[in-house]
Every structure is written in C-alpha cells, then in structure tokens.
Amino acid sequence: MVESLLGGRYRLGACLGGGGMADVYRAMDTRLERVVAVKVFRQGTDRTGRERFEEEARLLAGLSHPGLVPVFDASASGDELYLVMQLVEGRTLADVIAAGPMPPAEVAELGRRLADVLTYVHDNGIVHRDVKPSNVLIGNDGRVFLADFGISRLIDAVGRMTASGVILGTATYMAPEQVHGSGIGHPTDVYALGLVLLECVTGRTEFPGSGTEAALARLTRSPHVPDTLPEPLRSALRAMTAAAPEQRPSAEQCADLLSGEATELIPVTEPVRPHTRQLPAPVAAQPRGRKWRWPLAGVAALALLIGLLFFLQRPEPAAVPQLPAVSGAPGVERLPQDLANLESLVR
C-alpha cells in the first residue's frame, strides 16, 4: 500500500492546533528528513484565490528575521492548500500567562523582542493583524517567535474572512480603528502588542467577553494600565494603547521605550516621529540681572590665581654689596687698604 503524503513529500503526524481556517500538524519532510510544522487550510478556494495565496506565501518566505518562524514551502495545487514552516519546540505565550502574571522586567524584555520583529516586518510593508498570546512562541531554548506572520494576508487571498475564524476570534486584541472599520495599519499591531504585554503583567485579559462585547468595550474605555508598574513599562503600555492610531509610537519606538533607551515619550499631540531619542533639553534662560554674575566671578578668580603664581615664582632680589669698615684715619697710611677694598668691590 502506497503511503499518502501531503504534496508527495510531507507525512502528517499529530495535530498541534487549529482555528476556523486551518489546522497545524507536526509533520516529517521525507525529502530532507526533518520535522516541520504544516498549516493545512480548508478546501473551497477558487483558482484566483489560490494564485493570490501562492503569491503571498512567496512574500512571506522571503522574510528573514530571528524572531520570525521561517516559511519553507507552500502549495495551492489540486485540493491541497498548505504552508510548511519551522517547527518550534516549546510553549505559546498563552500557556505562560495561564500560569500567572509575569515579572515586569521579563515582560519588558519580551515586548522589546516582539517590537523588534514588528519593526522588521513593518519595514517590509506587512501588517500582522493577529498579534495575540497564542501566536507568540517561546522555544525551549528561550528564543521568542511571532508566528502566523501574514497569515491574515493569506486568509484574505483565499477569500474566507469568517467571523468565527478571523474577526471574532481575535476581537480581544483588536484596535479601536478595527472596530470602527476605519482601516488597518502598523499602529494596529502596536495596539495589539500593548494589550498582550498588559495581559502578561496582570495575568488577565483586558477586554474579556464574547467577540462583539470585547470589540465594543475598547470604544467606551481605555485599557487600565496599573500605576504600580515600573517605568519604562508603564509609560510604554499607555502610549501603545492610545485610542488614536496616530498617537501611538511606531514599533521601532516601542522597542526603544521598553528597553529604556528612550528617555522621553513623544507627546501625543504631535505626529509620531521615526525615532524616540530626544535632543538635550535647552538650558533655561537666566534672569537679566544675574546673567553675567558667575562669568565675572570666574574671571576675577582666574586673575587672582595668575597673580599669586607670578608672586610665588618671582626671583629673589640680588643682595646689595656692603662697604667694608673704615680701615683707619684718613691719610697716606690708609691708602693701601683702601685700594684693596676698592678692588674687592669691583670684583
């Protein structure tokens, strides 16, 4: 009996998980003899959808970042529609959160890594649109991966945007603009990452409930970021979950904020800049009457020091020669002695 292989190459094993659109299997690549993860999508896609799927899969396969799960292969031929990726041995972030709140320092470092991944993918013109704990993989070696990157693009390609599989299934981490239907962009991923990190540090979902209930909740209130959280995590989470997308920092700025490299947040009233590092604050102007007090005092002190050094290094004055004592009474008898004294003085 001939063994049935997916694509004539992949032997499917245990199902690792699934959603409304696809199931993920542990599989063996019989050609390269390595274990992989295969995401098999549901059937029912037309020819145009398959072509778009293959185009998007090639785009994803061209991405390369230590925090991305590499895409090895893809197919949309016949009745088979699948994506082959690296198998990450470990846990999801959802599993970690289920064990209780994480230390703030650990959450900040995790957020920095994920923001770095988002920066890379955003620079390549891709929006994740599905940042959530179950899509964050933590390997047994400690490495962190953001999985299903661009899977929402693939779902768009096959034309199967169902409420249970995509919209309602991720409503817990949707940004306000998604609820309004006003467009999806890079700030959408930043908002979702902020909610994920907030859940990590509190141990609870910020917007629980059914899909519709969770989606509408963020339109009535902002996420509650505890005042007890240490900096820079507290300020970063508040900025990342701002209601207006233009008020949120970029993914690159998030990485700086979470690592503590950015000393100040960009004011939310101004457009987001590409970088968060701030110029030194201008020196406050001094009152007019005291403007020259300290410079003049410095000049006077310098002059005094120079005068003191000059006085200490001044050479000692030459000794004034002393006349010898009178050799006797005036007269011829004193002449030889006076001449000797004169000769001594000349010398």
Could you please describe the fold and organization of this structure?
Strand 2 and strand 3 form a beta hairpin. This protein has helices at residues 47-61, 93-98, 104-123, 151-158, 163-167, 176-180, 186-202, 211-217, 233-240, 251-259, 293-312, 335-346; strands at 10-18, 22-29, 34-41, 71-75, 82-86, 90-92, 136-139, 144-146. It has 2 domains: 10-86, Phosphorylase Kinase, domain 1 (2-Layer Sandwich); 90-259, Transferase(Phosphotransferase), domain 1 (Orthogonal Bundle), CATH 1.10.510.10. Residues 159-169 and 266-294 have low confidence and may be disordered. Helices cover 38% and strands 13% of the residues. The chain is an alpha+beta fold and 347 residues long.
Question: Biggest β-sheet, characterized?
Answer: 5 strands, antiparallel
How many beta-strand segments?
8
What spatial form do the alpha-carbon principal axes imply?
Answer: elongated
Broad structural category: alpha+beta
Taking the alpha carbons of the first and last residues, their distance comes to: 132 Å
Placed side by side, the strands forming the largest sheet appear as 1-2-3-5-4
How is the quaternary structure best described?
single chain
Q: Indicate the proportion of strand residues.
A: 5-15%
Task: Indicate the radius of gyration in whole angstroms.
Answer: 40 Å
Q: Let me know the CATH homologous superfamily of the largest domain.
A: Transferase(Phosphotransferase) domain 1
Low-pLDDT sequence parts: 159-169, 266-294
Keywords: ATP-binding, Kinase, Membrane, Nucleotide-binding, Transferase, Transmembrane, Transmembrane helix
Protein name: Protein kinase domain-containing protein
Organism: Saccharopolyspora taberi
